[in-house]
Amino acid sequence: MVFLLKKCCPSFFLFRNNTIIPNINNKFMITSYKKKWNISNTIFYVNYDRSKIIYFCYRQNRDGIYLAKISKYKKNEMDVIKKLKNMNYIIQIKDLFYNEHGSIIIMKYYPNLDLQKYLSMSYNYSLDIIIFNLLQCIISLHKMKIYHRDIKLENFIIDHEYGFKVLLSDFEMATENLRLNNKQGSLYYLPPEYFTNKCVDNKKRDFWALGVVIYFLIYKDFPFNGESYTEIKYNILNQKIKYKKVNNKYKILLINLLKKNPEKRLIIELK
């Protein structure tokens, strides 16, 4: 990873004994191919997570706080991100730099919680408003012929800057291919056909995962649980979903989003 950073953005960090240290000089530069972007700021923190992705926060004069994500180059992610700049219900992408060594995505920093943490904080929230926002996130993305493939609570960001809004984030697994046989994803959100079909319809997969998110919003639990991968997989394939007391409109929505047969699953599109 140190090699990647030296090649991709040598002026972002100091390197001492293979340790990544924030460079707190007042001015530094991002360069990629012929693009240059001068920033006058100070780094607030660096986070090196399990997936070997580095995030750091900085303030740019007059524009507020931004987040830089530095990671290995992934063509599908870059192709998708280029199309998502300035889109509604998507995190704000400021700029994008990449080459064969790695990529830097500059995005707006949202200091509020992701949806999972937001729910755990016992806020009083309107189900109608959140569900409307979630649907808009998925519908807006699909209108661009882009499929997220990793819809989950943690990938929805709460934005309170101008009222209340939910934004979709993290496009590492996103694709422009409607059907893929790539076996990746977050277990609790995987549809039954993921385990039985070679190719999965990614639009229907996104709506299934959205159904799981909405189910969690209502019941504070996943529709399918287990103590192991095998048990959760079995339950997704075979267990009937239990709908406890809930407003009938939410129950109807869940029943149609969580149809085990993808051909019968609810799909919502903008014409």
Describe the structure in your own words:
With 271 residues, this protein is of the alpha+beta class. The protein folds into 2 domains: 2-108, Phosphorylase Kinase, domain 1, CATH 3.30.200; 115-264, Transferase(Phosphotransferase), domain 1 (Orthogonal Bundle), CATH 1.10.510.10. It has helices at 2-8, 75-84, 115-120, 127-143, 193-196, 202-219, 229-238, 248-257, and strands at residues 13-16, 19-22, 27-32, 35-40, 43-48, 54-60, 64-71, 93-99, 102-108, 156-159, 165-168, 179-180, 200-201.
Shape: globular
Order of helices and strands: HEEEEEEEHEEHHEEEHEHHH
Helix and strand content put the structural class at alpha+beta
**Terminal Cα span:** 44 Å
How would you sum up the major sheet?
5 strands, antiparallel
User: Any idea what the radius of gyration is?
Assistant: 20 Å
Tally of separate domains: 2
Strand order of the largest sheet: 5-6-7-9-8
Instruction: Please report the first level of CATH classification, the CATH class of the largest domain.
Output: Mainly Alpha
Level of helix content?
A: 25-40%
Task: Determine the mean pLDDT.
Answer: 77
CATH superfamily of the largest domain: Transferase(Phosphotransferase) domain 1
- Please count the helical segments: 8
- CATH level-two architecture of the largest domain: Orthogonal Bundle
Question: CATH topology of the largest domain, what is it called?
Answer: Transferase(Phosphotransferase), domain 1
Strand content: 15-25%
**Uncertain residue segments:** 1-51
